[in-house]
């Protein structure tokens, strides 16, 4: 591990759920020992997961951390602080970025906010205010799913955004939130090949780091659940070296229906569900 890193969290997979549960996953880039000591006690008491870095962090490492927010003292990074701030704000649009530094001028604060920082805090700052500002930023950055969209029917499955779940003949498929978001993203682009990078950006909210296999892993889990509950259909098709395409195809006597327009498949599904 980098000598400039103090690790204080364990394994954690879902940055969205951390916000929902009242916890925040945070990276702190700072070397002010007094500030870090006081802030750390408050973060520990609140049950937040955080890591302290005393130097800049490569963007791909920030992606891998699955953060809600980063708190950075740009003065610590010297002349490269502005480049770091712009790079992070541009590359990770869903990451909350809060600058917390001393001795800044109005021109510097304006520059930082225009580069993409969500907030700027002047030191000395009370840790409760710092945490409240971080919470406010993460609430604004929380991914939003449109619950007003009606159910989407494809093959035998009914996708319900209002319940973050998919069903077959009224039975829940048992998807996790991430699996549901992936299914919804694929289904809304039915018939279109989505590249892995596109899926990662839309579902995870970040640019995909080199070598990251999260999309493939989640597609495999999602496909297994769909095929278990709807064994006569194939839904997700692999385009090797590119990505995935969602298109329901029947393995049996419903082949003709599989080629029908989505509206006709929807009517047929609801008709069969009503008569069963």
Please, could you describe this protein's structure?
- With 276 residues, the chain is an alpha/beta fold.
- It folds into 2 domains: 5-141, Rossmann fold, CATH 3.40.50.2300; 152-275, Orthogonal Bundle (Arc Repressor Mutant, subunit A).
- The protein has 11 helices and 13 strands.
- It has helices at 15-20, 33-46, 59-65, 81-91, 106-115, 127-141, 177-188, 196-203, 214-229, 255-258, 262-275; strands spanning 5-7, 25-29, 49-53, 69-72, 96-102, 119-123, 152-154, 157-160, 165-168, 171-172, 193-195, 233-239, 243-250.
- The chain has a 6-stranded mixed β-sheet, sandwiched between helices.
- Helix 2 (33-46) crosses helix 6.
- The radius of gyration is 23 Å and the shape is elongated.
């Amino acid at each position: 591990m980098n000598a400039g890193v103090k690790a204080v969290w364990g394994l954690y997979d879902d940055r969205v759920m951390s916000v929902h549960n009242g916890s925040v996953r945070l990276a702190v880039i700072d070397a002010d020992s007094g500030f870090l000591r006081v802030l750390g006690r408050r973060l520990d008491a609140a049950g937040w997961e955080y890591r302290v870095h005393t130097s800049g962090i490569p963007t791909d490492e920030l992606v891998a951390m699955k953060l809600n927010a980063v708190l950075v003292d740009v003065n610590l990074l010297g002349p490269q602080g502005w480049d770091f701030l712009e790079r992070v704000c541009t590359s990770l649009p869903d990451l909350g970025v809060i600058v917390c530094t001393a001795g800044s001028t109005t021109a510097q604060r304006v520059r930082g906010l225009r580069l993409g920082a969500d907030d700027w805090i002047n030191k000395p700052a009370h840790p409760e205010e710092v945490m409240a500002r971080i919470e406010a930023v993460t609430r604004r950055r929380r991914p939003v799913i449109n619950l007003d969209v009606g159910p989407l029917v494809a093959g035998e499955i009914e996708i319900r955004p209002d319940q973050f779940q998919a069903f077959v003949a009224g039975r829940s498929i048992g998807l996790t939130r991430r699996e549901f978001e992936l299914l919804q993203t694929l289904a809304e682009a039915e018939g279109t090949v989505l590249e892995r990078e596109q899926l990662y950006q839309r579902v995870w909210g970040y640019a995909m780091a080199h070598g990251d296999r999260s999309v493939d892993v989640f597609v495999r889990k999602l496909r297994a659940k769909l095929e278990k509950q709807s064994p006569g259909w194939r839904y997700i098709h692999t385009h090797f070296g590119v990505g995935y395409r969602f298109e329901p195809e029947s393995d049996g006597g419903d082949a003709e229906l599989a080629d029908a327009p989505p509206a006709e498949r929807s009517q047929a599904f609801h008709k069969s569900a009503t008569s069963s």
